[in-house]
């Protein structure tokens, strides 16, 4: 577990740095879910928002476990190297998107829209949200919303070659996204405005790009470890 700690911290930071993207992708949905809470339940709003996000993070963890099984299956073959390269390239693409330099990531997100079209009507039947279990289930469905940041992180987690590690990394990633989306649901304008600032977005994007370069297999990893 100690060896996994740096990767868990990295996954959490990746989720936090992707906060600007989360606001763009899920901020409107989070606001809609908040408004969907009946007036008589407003006193429980914070707990319902926690349940939304817990369901979403559990979906990320489940997806990490499933795709981690695929990563484990190819861990000892040449496909493992290919998976790691694709994961690194997606992370670099994510960084470019966060920094506002290239929006090619939106094409990747389009791949998941077919699945979301089937999930969305089911999610709609859970509104209005009147209980914690209902909010948890709605959040779990929301976790399958097409998102390039999630896809990039999933492939990176799968490239570790272990289903359990992949699930833990996606859990840590989900926890990293939690503060931003929870604050969005509570209308924390200062935090959301801060994450939308160009300087913050560029800084986050550059860090994700560097993380993607680090993920690429090659001699540069040994050089960086030595420095």
Q: Which structural traits does this protein have?
A:
77% helix, globular, 227 residues, single chain, mainly alpha
Could you please describe the fold and organization of this structure?
By secondary structure, the chain is an all-alpha fold. The chain has one domain (3-189). The chain is built from 12 helices and no strands. It is globular. The two termini are 24 Å apart. The model has no long low-confidence stretch (mean pLDDT 82).
Number of helices: 12
Per DSSP E runs of 2 or more residues, the count of β-strands stands at: 0
Main β sheet profile: none
Low-confidence runs of at least 5 consecutive residues: none
Supply the number of structural domains: 1
Q: What's the gyration radius in Å?
A: 18 Å
Mean pLDDT, to the nearest integer, reads 82
Q: Percent helix among the residues?
A: over 70%
| N-to-C span | 24 Å
Order of helices and strands: HHHHHHHHHHHH
The class by helix and strand makeup works out as mainly alpha
Question: Which descriptor suits the 3D outline?
Answer: globular
Strand content: under 5%
Keywords: Membrane, Transmembrane, Transmembrane helix
InterPro entries: UreH-like_TM_dom (IPR039447)
Transmembrane segments: 12-37, 57-75, 81-103, 135-156, 168-188, 200-217
Protein name: Urease accessory protein UreH-like transmembrane domain-containing protein
How are the secondary structure elements laid out?
Layout: H1 5-17, H2 19-35, H3 45-73, H4 79-99, H5 105-109, H6 113-124, H7 132-142, H8 148-158, H9 163-185, H10 189-196, H11 198-215, H12 220-226
